[in-house]
Amino acid sequence: MLKLNTLRPHPDSLQRKKRVARGTSSGHGKTGGRGNKGQKSRSGGTKGPFFEGGQTPIYRRLPKKRGFKNFAFKKIYREINVSSLAKFSGEIKIDDLIKANLAEAGEKIKVLGNGEVSKALTVSAHKFTKSAKEKIEKAGGKIVLC
Q: Would you say the pTM of this structure is higher than 0.70?
């Protein structure tokens, strides 16, 4: 009967590890399959992945990227136009904008002044443009900075 402790792989399925440079009778002795002489026959005899045969490599031919980089501290805002706030009424909080799929959770929101507002709204956001501020207040609404 077949038991877990008697399981063995088929004898022909296993290949022994090739032991290189361990005497001539092994078939891979003396030079160990590396041929005779030359750079590749010696230990550590390969060049790096960016070696281009002695010509000046691409990373040295191209100029360095200079200048100030502010990626780590850049503030990214989700921009929402005043026209898309028209479908709301009363007080608009950030959670309401997230539920309406106008923004995602954790995003900062900036209200832009593209479009018109006809009703008085109380809008909560992180930033407002001058034109958006004027249009909301002109319609009798308020602005709340978060």
A: no
